[in-house]
Amino acid sequence: MYSYISIRHNAKRFFTKNVGPIRNAAVIFAEVPSSELEVDKHIKNVEDRTIDLNTINTQGGVVTKNLVVSIDPYMRRRMRAADLKSYLPPFKLNQPLTNFIVGKIIKSNNNKYKVGQFVYGNGGYEEYTVHFKDQAETLRILSDEELKLDLPLTTWVGAAGMAGQTAFYGLYHIGQPKKGETIFITGASGAVGQLVGQFAKREGLTVIGSAGSDDKVQWLKKELCFDHAFNYKTANIKAELARFNPLNIYFDNVGGDQLEAALDAADNFARFIECGMISLYDTSNTHGIRNLVLVVTKRLKLEGFIILDKNNDEHFNKEFYTKIPKWIANGELKVKEDITKGLEHAPKAIVGIFKGKNFGKAVIQIADN
């Protein structure tokens, strides 16, 4: 855990130094993949980049020393050709990957931000990121009150960040859970799924989850108190769901044959929360859904969402940040993280999430505070 006192003290000490050009290692997007992502081919470490903190012009922005950076499945969708459109622009070839970071401000030319503050927002897979004015304005300062919660900084890019927002918004605002209902969550041990399950238990739902290993299944049952969980790689999915059907809510992180099985098991007027389909992201072999007619005959509600759409929703952000970090800090929410230490190990960790090698929220710890 990071103590509030040591965070502030160490921040002060760091900024008294006046240094010349220093290393700014990064993980870059090297080549557009046509199928499965490969280390050292599509994403690569670059060690010989530098940055001069004394002379860099932030143009009204800030420079952050990046401490942690998130790994998320949606990053794979950005590893595409520049002319292909989607809800986020593609990564730029030979430039650092980007995602949500927690960083420490080490240079500021913006009155909103002070040297030594910790911020959450979009940054690079690199040791230092220059955030020009427009980019800097999107960074969220971690308040003194939030730092006093003593959460690990990794948690602010996970359960107390985008993953938590995704779970919270998806279940409560789209799923509209009611006590006594049954929910099925795919990718249930992942960053989003583990939180959805706990939220659902709080609301009195019967919670079923799937995961990709027996260890993950046991953790869901024993630690998170899921009513049932199974290994989708070895189980008969339709038979597992038949034990608890009909389903009232389906929280989809995976897609594919599990989505198809959920359609079969759904009750009339069930709500399908379409959050992600990781089974389709890193392969050219997609699974077509053969029973979509059930959306009509069962009068199902299927709603997809992108949590980034809520970035500027002040009401939602206030609701989330006044509740979730405190729930984590006081133990009401359990959080499992899969932390990889060292930016140089990031490419392997990124590839690993598409093979189910992570157990919990995948995060890269770039530097110690």
UniProtKB/TrEMBL annotation:
SUPFAM superfamilies xref list: GroES-like, NAD(P)-binding Rossmann-fold domains
Signal peptide segment: none
Record domain Enoyl reductase (ER): where: 76-364
Reaction equations catalysed: 13,14-dihydro-15-oxo-prostaglandin F1alpha + NADP(+) = 15-oxoprostaglandin F1alpha + NADPH + H(+); 13,14-dihydro-15-oxo-PGF2alpha + NADP(+) = 15-oxoprostaglandin F2alpha + NADPH + H(+); 13,14-dihydro-15-oxo-prostaglandin E1 + NADP(+) = 15-oxoprostaglandin E1 + NADPH + H(+)
Gene3D superfamilies, A to Z: Medium-chain alcohol dehydrogenases, catalytic domain (3.90.180.10), NAD(P)-binding Rossmann-like Domain (3.40.50.720)
EC number: 1.3.1.48
Keywords, comma-separated and alphabetical: Oxidoreductase
Coiled-coil features, chain-numbered ranges: none
One Pfam family from the record: ADH_zinc_N
Top-level enzyme category: oxidoreductase
GO molecular function, one term: 15-oxoprostaglandin 13-reductase [NAD(P)+] activity
Family matches, as InterPro entries: ADH-like_C (IPR013149), ADH_N_2 (IPR041694), ER (IPR020843), GroES-like_sf (IPR011032), MDR_fam (IPR045010), NAD(P)-bd_dom_sf (IPR036291)
Entry's family note: Belongs to the NADP-dependent oxidoreductase L4BD family.
Protein's recorded name: 15-oxoprostaglandin 13-reductase
Organism for this UniProt entry: Adineta steineri
